[in-house]
Amino acid sequence: MASSSMVSKIQQLGKMLSETKSFDRVLSKVRIVSAAKGKLSCELTVGEEHTNLGGTLHGGLTATIIDSVSTWAIVSAEHPPGVSTDLNISYMRPAKIGETVIIDAECLKVGKTLAFASVSLLNKDTGKLIAQGRHTKYIA
Amino acid sequence: MASSSMVSKIQQLGKMLSETKSFDRVLSKVRIVSAAKGKLSCELTVGEEHTNLGGTLHGGLTATIIDSVSTWAIVSAEHPPGVSTDLNISYMRPAKIGETVIIDAECLKVGKTLAFASVSLLNKDTGKLIAQGRHTKYIA
Amino acid sequence: MASSSMVSKIQQLGKMLSETKSFDRVLSKVRIVSAAKGKLSCELTVGEEHTNLGGTLHGGLTATIIDSVSTWAIVSAEHPPGVSTDLNISYMRPAKIGETVIIDAECLKVGKTLAFASVSLLNKDTGKLIAQGRHTKYIA
Amino acid sequence: MASSSMVSKIQQLGKMLSETKSFDRVLSKVRIVSAAKGKLSCELTVGEEHTNLGGTLHGGLTATIIDSVSTWAIVSAEHPPGVSTDLNISYMRPAKIGETVIIDAECLKVGKTLAFASVSLLNKDTGKLIAQGRHTKYIA
């Protein structure tokens, strides 16, 4: 189901993000691994720039990843990115510098006015959940 | 009720944040305006570096602000910063480049094992809510 | 700012709820204390019918109260009740049988398409927070 | 992986719920379909007693179902039920009287002090999501 043209299109987004001066630059090391309509899988290897003062993946960056990768999944379902109404995150385990995080985003519903998506962050080595969140957007 | 020594202490945190290579650097322009035990008020003037591709305050940065300023409020109540368990945000209005955002954080409960805090972001000119969130931390 | 006609109108709602066979019947003992445009204050004395197996206010009823009293606050702002998109609750302290709970609901924003409201449940004797939640509704 | 003794044990819980005077009585028509360690699948056919004034599954009952069925899933993983810290729900589609709702609960993490679970409600006929939520509990 993965579409290489969709991956290519979203990778162009990745390139654009790496060059932007906007806040999206903090996602410049997020690598898109696969994409299908309404589904997106990415990876990020945690570096110092991604951490809190305790040396693990910052909860604010986790929230930013959930916000943005879910938006890319909505766009991959050929819908406008819309504006956020609600975002929530549960934090289950830390991710340390050098560890690779899998980011799996899935659209739960994309309607005429509202879109809902879920994002899970997993430790690539252990498969265990680091965090999970849901994002609601107004896309009319 | 505001304590100037507490402001001074937290402003040192601000200075430290501005020099860090960690993700907290994205908060380097957040200014602490007043602090009391369990309450903290900050300001941020939105710059290009804080925005999404639509030119308004990025929802991921809003989440990061809620995550971090609530943590500073918990620390201001003389508790350890702890680790996040849950974070949620409702997004009500955009904040444009050049606009100043008031960030009001308040501890709702700081117990032996769990702390709860609420954070509101308001437009300084209009007083209207931009976003509001709640943060739960495990602090045992 | 409290409007006695609004209280009367919402008390009629209360009477209707006490007679309904729908799920809203579980709110039949919620008493409306005051109402203003977009703000509503209620009380509930916890009875056995409101509890979990541990003998304290059930988290599902807390969620139902936040869902419904926030909706009444939106209606008190002369807007349609709409449909829920997101609801969140943080649980801070238990409420025991015989204790009276104050329920304060406030509209945060009522726009053309979306409404946001916050609800706090407090112990009437101690003034301490039992729970706090936010509710987002699509009202277009 | 489904354990018939576990189903039997949880069905006893079901019987107990149907006889209780506590708020859990509102779940008396929830049928447990299968259970495994940390996973639970239930069904509910929507009746008038489960609805809002619009004639569809009440958002407060949806929240109660997510709260309780996730707790049963934590118990099925041989952990204490604990106390709620956070609950969130996104509402995607209505469920009408006469429709059967599948309720799938899954523990995301059950640690020493905190447990996290996710619950999805789906329309049995269409397979489409009605609502999804997450529940965090303190179980130490």
TrEMBL record, chains A, B, C, D:
Residues 54-128 form the Thioesterase domain. It catalyses: dodecanoyl-CoA + H2O = dodecanoate + CoA + H(+); octanoyl-CoA + H2O = octanoate + CoA + H(+); decanoyl-CoA + H2O = decanoate + CoA + H(+); hexanoyl-CoA + H2O = hexanoate + CoA + H(+). It comes from the Eukaryota. Its main location: cytoplasm. InterPro entries: ACOT13, HotDog_dom_sf, PAAI_dom, Thioestr_dom. Belongs to the thioesterase PaaI family. PANTHER family: ACYL-COENZYME A THIOESTERASE 13, THIOESTERASE SUPERFAMILY MEMBER-RELATED. This is Acyl-coenzyme A thioesterase 13. It comes from Amphimedon queenslandica.
